[in-house]
Amino acid sequence: MDTPMKRLILLGLMILSCSFVFADTLTLKSGHPDSYVVKKGDTLWDISAYFLKDPWRWPKLWGANPQIANPHLIYPGDRLTLVFIDGEPRLVVKPHIRKSPEGRILPKGGAIPAIDLALIQPYLVQNRVVDAAWFAEQPMVMGGESDSKYHVMDNIIYIQGELTVGDKFGVYAAGRQFTDKDSGEDLGQEVILTASGRVVESGPVSKIHLLSNMKETKAGYRVLPIDDDALMSAYFMPAAATTSASVLASERNIRAMGKLDVVYLDRGTNDGVEPGHVFSIFRDGTEIVIDGNGQPVKPDDRSAYEDMLSAISSDNAVKMPDIYHGKLMVFKVFDKVSLGLILINEKPVRVQDKLLQPDTLLQGE
Predict the structure, then answer these.
(1) 82 in Cβ contact with 65 (< 8 Å)
(2) pLDDT digits (tens, 9 = 90+) for 254-273
(3) Are the C-beta atoms of residues 221 and 234 closer than 8 Å to each other?
(4) pTM assigned to the model
(5) Separation of alpha carbons 78 and 105, rounded Å
(6) Which candidate, 58, 53, 84, 89, places its Cα nearest to that of 363?
(7) Distance of alpha carbon 254 from alpha carbon 351, whole angstroms
(8) Cα angle 36, 41, 45; round to 5
(9) Beta bridge partners of 173
(10) Strand ranges (DSSP E) for 251-361?
(11) pLDDT digits (tens, 9 = 90+) for 151-179
């Protein structure tokens, strides 16, 4: 290989290396504090947001300190101090020196969580997305001992099918059917937990004693084995998403979503999505049409003729840059669909907004 070619390759490697360094560099927020005392009700994300422009990068901010590498070891009352190690910002717990002979006073309450789990706990337990045909084949609620149309906690309900005495089941109502907006592919059936119960009698028609209810249960609902994984405590280590996606639906079926709202994503485990994955939320930039006088026209001001110009040729329309709207973190994943919580919201989020890998877009945010 001749020398000029070697130099070109070396230059390329240096540029690539610099790009990775840039993407992996923590950016401190302007006006950040030098230290912070953890308070009850804080989350790791909240504390990181005092220091970082990208708070989801808290694992890197605290990674150098073994005392807080495990977030379960950060408690209210701990003092976190910002230091620099090899030029990189880090949060450390400074040694606490007491002059009195008393031992360390343990803080009240537990360690602070990554995010406010109370916000997502209902969805961890209640929401599932399954294959519609499979759901239709599951044992069905036929009615109950009560003459009422609706059944609640402590009621006995009848299930079509022979179930094992002692097993726990959830009672689910059918929700929305999700499809991919581009391909039309079936993404699954949303099912909502209305109650849980235990089998108390088995036979062609089994009996379930309802132990809890989130909503009233009625005939036609289906019963599924309780998803034990969904009932476990949530633990998240945020990381950049490895794929792109889009907002599939609002969990509450509202048009505009904001901070701490829950959304469905149109990607799941089949696409490599995992709990803790962080996405940047973007909306397509508008398309400006050049009219007959060579002047730019916004979409809302277009005439039918200008719409036609845009449709005829891309030379007549210029797409503006995509607009950053915020960030979300995935907390529950199904085969083709995920649930995420909006944690940063600069503009309202809507269905079909784009979800992109945050690392590749630092310069644009």
Answers:
(1) no
(2) 999 999 899 999 999 999 99
(3) no
(4) 0.73
(5) 11
(6) 53
(7) 9
(8) 65
(9) 192
(10) 262-265, 277-283, 287-290, 296-297, 317-319, 323-333, 338-345, 354-356
(11) 999 999 999 999 999 999 999 999 999 99
